[in-house]
From TrEMBL:
InterPro entries documented for this protein: AI-2E-like
Recorded family membership: Belongs to the autoinducer-2 exporter (AI-2E) (TC 2.A.86) family.
Entry membrane topology: Multi-pass membrane protein
A Gene Ontology term for the protein's cellular component: membrane
Pfam families linked to this entry: AI-2E_transport (PF01594)
The organism of origin for this protein: Rugamonas brunnea
GO biological process: transmembrane transport
Lineage top rank: taxon: Bacteria
Assigned keywords, A-Z: Membrane, Transmembrane, Transmembrane helix
Protein name as catalogued: AI-2E family transporter
């Protein structure tokens, strides 16, 4: 005969079911929550600046929180605008020059590869005329299929672009209100925690906050070191656009692959435009290859991993695991999420070691 549940057990089961349903609802609404999650992450990073200005309001300067939020957001978006102003002029300068250099580059490539391809029984011209003929042949052979694929891609791509535009417009609005009511929101979250667990929960939240702060400081230091490294390396190699390209590569390194890839493409374009032979390409390969080794095996594990208490092997595993599970966003959030999980695992381990199951 089953034992009757007490009132407390019934309440516990009920609220566990409610929280599980809430979590399932969040999973189902994942795409809708993307701008809210992005805004919450930015709000967490920018809130110390707002708090600093807000504390001045308590003193003699008189900066209310709403004005502090506006000032911090203006500085943040001004920094993003400065990065754009660094990238766009470089692209405007290099892309037209690259377009003019493409025929000569294809001729060099054809002179280098055509004889070897001919020895293998492959007849192909890699100059502009040969590529045009090859594309015309492919288009003539499957025009209907290609047109259908292009239309389908345009439809999907158009929907994705509209979604990105809506997200980009929505994030600043959400960010403003999150920063404005940040402490009130945290108080509401803390108020929803059962009172028996409130002290333990606040202690864990404090540890997570300290780890994430150390992560941000370590990541900023990695960005600074790499910006100096890439700029110096490109200057020594004689690149005219060494400073902007090096700064872009270093500052965007917090976005895995994208920052490095953009800097690498800009450096390769500059090498094709500025240097007549293969010297520029070899220099770019050496500089960026060494930069990847420096970042992946020394800077990130040492300056970021050690600050949040993660072993270098754990850092590499976290990047691979979160990338496999959640794609690009997972790679972006791998280390801070690992810091949070590490705090939870530490408390779980302590509870396990103190349990009767372990000590019996």
């Amino acid at each position: 005969m089953p034992f009757p549940l007490s009132v407390e057990q019934k309440q516990t089961a009920f609220w566990i079911a409610v929280w599980l349903a809430f979590v399932l609802l969040l999973v189902a609404l994942g795409p809708v929550l993307t701008p809210f999650i992005a805004a919450a992450i930015l709000a967490y990073a920018l809130n110390p600046g707002v708090d600093y200005l807000d504390r001045l309001h308590m003193g003699r300067f008189g900066v209310p929180r709403a004005l502090a939020v506006v000032l911090v957001l203006l500085l943040f978006f001004a920094a993003i605008g400065a990065l754009i102003l660094i990238v766009v002029p470089v692209l405007q300068k290099e892309l037209p020059l690259l377009q003019a250099q493409i025929p000569a580059f294809l001729e060099k490539l054809n002179a280098l590869l055509a004889p070897r391809l001919h020895e293998m029984g492959i007849t192909a011209q890699l100059d502009g005329e040969g590529i045009r003929k090859l594309l015309s042949k492919q288009l003539a052979g499957g025009g209907d299929e290609i047109l259908a694929a292009v239309l389908a891609s345009a439809k999907v791509g158009g929907t994705a672009v509209l979604g990105w535009i809506a997200t980009v417009v929505l994030i600043p609005v959400l960010l403003f209100y999150l920063l404005l009511d940040w402490h009130a929101l945290l108080a509401r979250v803390a108020g929803a925690v059962p009172r028996r667990y409130i002290d333990r929960t606040l202690a864990m939240a404090g540890e997570v906050d300290e780890l994430l702060a150390q992560y941000l400081r370590g990541q900023l230091l990695v960005m600074l070191v790499l910006a100096v490294y890439y700029s110096s390396g490109l200057i020594i190699a004689g690149f005219d656009v060494a400073l902007p390209v090096g700064i872009i590569t270093g500052l965007l390194v917090f976005i895995p692959y994208l920052g490095f890839g953009l800097g690498l493409v800009l450096a390769l374009i500059a090498s094709v435009l500025q240097f007549p032979g293969w010297n520029g390409l070899v220099a770019v390969a050496i500089i960026y290859g060494c930069g990847q080794v420096l970042e992946g095996f020394f800077l990130t594990p040492r300056l970021v991993g050690e600050r949040i208490g993660l072993n270098p092997l754990a850092v590499i595993f976290a990047l691979l695991a979160f990338g496999q599970l959640f794609g690009f966003v997972g790679v972006l959030l791998a280390l801070p999420a690992s810091a949070v999980l590490m705090v939870a695992f530490k408390h779980l381990r302590r509870h396990y070691l103190d349990s009767s199951f372990y000590n019996a």
